[in-house]
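Handout, section 3.2

Students often ask what a structure token actually looks like in practice. Rather than define it abstractly, here is a full record for V-type proton ATPase subunit H. The first block is the sequence as you would receive it.
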Amino acid sequence: MFLDPPAYLASLQNNIRQRPIPWDGAVRSGIITDDQLSRIRAVDRAKKPDTKQAIVEDDVPAYASLFAGQAGRPSILESAAKQPAMLQYLLVLLSDLISCSTVFAKSLLDSDDPYRSLRPLLSHSTTPDDPIRLLTSTVLTGIIGATRDSSQATVQVLSDLLPYLSEQVRGSDASKQDIAVQQLSHVLSTPGLRSQFWGLREDTVKPMIDILGSAAGLGSQSSSASLWSGTNNQRPTGPDGQVDSGVGIELLYHVLFAVWQLSFDAKKIGDDLNDEYDIVILYSQLLKVSPKEKISRVIIATLRNLLENNEKTLLPTAVLARLPTVLGNLAGRHYADQELLEDLGVLQELLEEYTRTKTTFDEYVAEVNTGHLRWSPPHRNAMFWAENARKILEYERGELPRKISEIMAKPWDQDKAVLAIACNDIGCLVKEVPEKRHQLEKLGLKRRIMELMGDTDENVKWESLRALGAWLKYSFEG
């Protein structure tokens, strides 16, 4: 898998390259030296990347010193800091040199403070038309992508870089969103930086998940309630290369690509990724509306990474999300991509093996652990409660009642059925194991059920009344 360069950024860089820069005047005024100008002109006159590479690699230390500076000597970027046009030109030139020579990119990291000239430029200006910050982030992510560096210096500069990129991803400019997502991919291409990326997930992962949610039909909702309840009606594609939500196909692909890169750490973060962002149900829905083979490919590859590394926890969730059905529908399509077909086959085998051995209790545990209840068969099955109520209360030292308590604490304005189902389940637990009702009371469940008797939803009122009735029956008898 690979990414094409962002068109908006390429256009911006081309425009900057064509601007005349008064280099001789800069020498006369002492902004730069004759030696610095000669090196700039040498690579500037070379139009082919191979020629630029040969010139730079013929004297790597000198070019590294030119752009990174030395102890006691400023870099040319620092010297030109108050000359916006010149600074923009130098940042574009530096990006060009990094992209054509990995040797040069690595040499920039040899100094004691390799990002000294670049880090201040991330806060150069906050005006939308000033391209300095964008050009700086392009240089920084270019260095990281070319060198795969995870040194302390790079870790430190990410603390400034990642919030800036997050700001762009959260913004309304689709072109800048796309550039920022691709630059985040450069960071994720370095294994040693993924843990830092994940540690800052409110700024890094969350904005990308919001884009995926919009593409899946969630609109501005912050939860996947409509996916679990099946109320979203997303159509596959809209006009002008967009899914029907308005998310551009290329932006969607680039976001999915970045999450795929993150999924190589699935063993460490897979459970949390699903707990916090409902990634399995989200990706199941995205597969349904996927307008392109390349989008299906990266979704399926990500799901394989997640499910293979978290079989115990995520396979039950995948079944609840009806992923086996979705994959079955995809298997009937004529895909040309062999890697897609291989990943699809592996996922189907994993899910088939799990469904052969799972029990109804396993299904219930998986549903509760998703944090979103639906009227699946166990809830209304009297035999299920008779056989499993005590097991539910004792599972993992009371983990399931605690999880139900957390579910019931939310308002669920977008899906009131969740509260009705939770009240049903609590009533069944009290009915089957009345001597354990104090365990539920300690979690505040009786109090919450009494509160829900005043809910505006008739089903919630009815189920809370039934649950409280079971409670009062055994309270009087006890």
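Discussion prompt for tutorial groups: DSSP finds 28 helices and no strands in the chain. How would you have guessed this from the sequence alone?
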